[in-house]
């Protein structure tokens, strides 16, 4: 893994993770301080020593890698990132008993070997996330990315937090809690791009934007390697997807109609009486 001391410009030590080899550019001056690029085997992170979280995590998903990743069991190895300064990094104690998940920006299920998966458990790749959000709509968007990449052969994904200054809170008075979380897709096959926007709360709702709209909201040029016309045009974004082999969670109204009170008990009693009558009839023959 490579560590760059400062990375607010498009230059990068790991161009393989970005469209056209160009990393996102932070344009929000408040978030430019103490930023460091971390180049992992299968993804890249721009870490902020101010928020003690990533500002983004970028991946290039491919069909072959995802096929291998499905065979790899999850092995939780959460750890602080030792390549960062102690004063700038999150620690496991920051999250302990906080009520928040250590939410991956680049999800471990995307990665095809133990080294890449282990790197994804670095706290440099985590934000404080509401559990119902992390396990619900956000997991669905991660699965949608894998599904689309498998279908089309490849997909570029960039994910990150947004901190609304008027509502910003901190874990342990150190790690900033995102107000929103976003995810961007770029499809080389379609030559289209789009973005998701999710409040970091107990919700299944999300919004979609063009990349240009998202970039204005967060103060970052997320896809500098993509033509402006593509960033402006938008993309039909897939709906959140359930993991393979797992039944989607029922939404309100999906439950089967309930029997009126007492109906199921009456049916059971009547069935038992019919059984006894048939048995007696057989014995009397």
SSE layout and pairings?
Blueprint: E1 2-4, E2 25-26, E3 35-39, E4 43-48, E5 53-62, H1 63-69, H2 92-95, E6 101-104, H3 114-120, E7 126-129, H4 131-135, H5 137-152, E8 154-162, E9 169-171, E10 175-177, E11 180-187, E12 192-199, E13 207-209, H6 211-218, E14 220-221, H7 228-233, H8 263-284
Antiparallel strand pairs: 1-3, 2-14, 3-4, 4-5, 5-8, 6-7, 8-11, 9-10, 11-12, 12-13
Question: What can you see in these coordinates?
Answer:
This protein has a single domain (2-233), classed as Extracellular Endonuclease, Chain A. The protein has 8 helices and 14 strands. Helix 1 packs across helix 5 (137-152). With 285 residues, the chain is an alpha+beta fold. Helices cover 26% and strands 25% of the residues. The strands form 4 sheets. An 8-stranded antiparallel β-sheet has the order 1-3-4-5-8-11-12-13. The protein is globular and about 60 Å long. The relative contact order is 0.13. It has helices at 63-69, 92-95, 114-120, 131-135, 137-152, 211-218, 228-233, 263-284, and strands at 2-4, 25-26, 35-39, 43-48, 53-62, 101-104, 126-129, 154-162, 169-171, 175-177, 180-187, 192-199, 207-209, 220-221. Mean pLDDT is 87; it is low at 5-9 and 245-267.
